[in-house]
Write a structure and sequence with these properties.
The complex is a heterodimer of chains A (about 350) and B (about 450).
Chain A lengths: L3 H10 L19 H19 L12 E6 L5 H12 L3 E6 L11 H10 L4 E6 L4 H8 L4 E7 L5 H15 L6 E5 L6 H12 L3 E5 L7 H5 L13 E2 L3 H4 L5 E4 L5 H4 L6 H8 L3 H4 L7 E3 L12 H4 L6 H19 L8
Chain B lengths: L6 E10 L4 E10 L2 E6 L12 E4 L4 E4 L1 E6 L12 H10 L2 E6 L10 H14 L3 E4 L15 H7 L14 H14 L3 E3 L4 H4 L4 E2 L2 H6 L3 E2 L1 H18 L3 E3 L5 H12 L4 E5 L1 H5 L36 H12 L5 E2 L28 H10 L6 H8 L1 H7 L17 E11 L18 E11 L2 E5 L5 E3 L2
Parallel strand pairs in B: 1-4, 1-5, 6-7, 7-8, 9-12, 10-11, 12-13, 13-14
Antiparallel strand pairs in B: 1-2, 2-3, 4-18, 5-15, 15-16, 16-17
Helix pairs in contact in B: 2-3, 3-4, 4-7, 7-8
Classes of the chains: A alpha/beta (about 350), B alpha/beta (about 450).
Amino acid sequence: MRSSRALLGEALREGKAPAWQRRHVLDLDDFSLQELELVLHTARAMKDVLRRDVKKVPSLRGKTVVTLFYEPSTRTRVSFETAGKIMSADVINVTNSGSSIEKGESLLDTLLTVQAMAMDIIVLRHPHSGAPYFAARNLGRSSVINAGDGTHAHPTQALLDVFTLQEHLGSLDGKRVVIVGDISHSRVARSDLWALTRLGARLVLCGPPTLMPWDLLKGRRDTPGHPFASVEVETDLDKAIEGAEVIIALRLQKERQGAGLLPSLREYARLWQVDPERLARASPNVRVMHPGPMNEGVEISPEVAHSAQALVQEQVTNGLAVRMALLYLLCGPRELGA
Amino acid sequence: MGKHPPLLIRGGRILDPSQGLDGAGDLLIQDGKVAWAGAPSDGSGTPPGCRVLDAAGLLVVPGFIDLHCHLREPGAEEKETIATGTLAAARGGFTTVCAMPNTDPSTDTAGAVEFLLRLASEQGHVRVLPVGCVTRGRKGKELADLAELAQAGVVGFSDDGDPVADSFLMRMALSYSTVTGLPVIDHLQDARLFGGGVAHEGWAASRLGLKGIPAEAEEVMAARDIELCALTGGRLHLAHISTKGSLEMARRARERGLPVTCEAAPHHLALTDDWLLGTRGEGGPFAPLGPLAYDTAAKVNPPLRPQADVDALVHGLRDGLIDAIATDHAPHSAVEKACTFDEAAFGISGLETALGLLLTALVHTGKVPLVTVIEKLTAGPARLLGPKYAHLGTLRPGAAGDVAIIAPDEEWTVNTAQFASKGKNTPLAGATLRGRVVATVVGGKLVFQKGAVSITASR
């Protein structure tokens, strides 16, 4: 069998792959099935690179990438930085502490400043929903990748999720995927919703009613063509997990309790923790994912988090491959030779 | 305002809902007052030295009254001043504006009212009527000196933006309203349900990951204050209502014979929360977010609501339940909108687009008769201001010579660079509207005219 890299090169040469027209990656709501497949396909080629002894390719030599993070992050920021460096891009990291952001510089001015330093790609993480759209609207030259915006979207996380699931399950069509936790505030869940429904998964959302995005799921239900019409909501995890092939547990931010959205973390854990007992109700081959960082003992039990079914570490590796793929596609595909 | 030479507005269609007047005619303003309005004159009654404004093909209506606008001075002169705000009013056909008291310092003392009135008389292009605070410093802790504020000339009381959360204090304020005869103008908002929301709680906000403001944040306050109105007999005016539910509560209150009135803003009558998706309706509500998503210019409080609420408001306007259209003109500086949606200030700069938007969205679409829209901008708000202001919002002989002249079918593109307002914050920037104000007269003085309007000396 030919390598996926060769397949990709062939597809691109023969014009079979959809042309990559995109300048920004803001969410997955506007990704066609073809585009999704192109990214996943490219990511498989990138994963080959990660398996090499010397993890360095020259594809993005001379390209500049800045990670601009207004929120704390380990895996996403390091993942983008590493992805850029493996592909020989120059990567600069800016966080709100220790930069002019601390001096009160506006997001707009910071973005324009960064763009003026000839940055090709700005990877933006921001606590406010829509910040990457604001950036894309105001930047004439740089590309913007959304690395998580408020409670809106986290497209690269969703891409790595579907990449990981495809590796294990092949097609996701008809697969029962349960997402459990604080769906309402989870940008991961929201981007997963777009990606997984597009790939045909049977989605079940589970969590307390106070943390469910009812308007997203039930609003506009009278209008034909609702993107989440097939998504099921089941507040009882024991029922939701029945026959599940995939469980995605979400991080429960501890502030939610202080805000009055749930009575106690203890009670939450009793009702919505993914633990071995509950896992036994799922499909025997069930896979468990978590976007991290985990609150072990709250949304996921330590036994499950470190079980063979948990794909948490694979998700991290695949995140690297997916982000390499996006950087590569946004800079215009070149040869991947070492 | 009576030192101007007589002005004859000739050959227009005179529409004055206050006296059921609608027909071709002339309007003469002398000594700052309407001398007569009616059937075309033969010119014999034209006084010497009279200027003549040719209104052929134009609509001549009483100057508009805006019950609710933010002029920002004193305290936020970078957003607006009395001078720029009242010029914006003039450009929008408004000849009287009620200035909300959330300035810095706020309008919570007789001295502050006097200051505002002096500033307005020196720098204002239109009439300014102050609204006073309900509570000292708008802090919701103790009542302002309501009777003194009334004596100083306020037309109502409001802690707009930070509504009185304390039910007891609201009861006291409404009770005082029976002494002053002035309404408490109520910005309906339950603080905890509002809870830091930035957009209407519904599909669009959820889709965008924005914190929602439920309709109930407005409605539970409407319910509370209507009951307090019943308890006290005080006048209650519901400001910028935006939901079907609060409208229905106003309807029931009216049926109970309570002194409850209400207003709606042009943007709530014409735009929905789908605006925030940035698709401008293309591809339906489920289309991918457009590049214009999270338009901070459309961030307003109360927020833009779904179509069902807009439809209910339009119905309430048509059937007369809504007493007045008020702009809630809320100018902001560019920097307060050039940011993320969460960071952006609430408010739409509305004075200069109000009429165009109303005509485009409601009248030219056949949803609301022209006469109704004009009534809600003139006689409607005048009625709420009470007998002291009976000379406003009408073209009856002896009334103030306040007139708006409209080209009802003229198409124009909203260019915020040409706004007189310092606030360029409108989602309508770049939109094409049909119908605009081409001249505005206050007390017989032409305070605004478009180039096309011609004025000649009488022969």
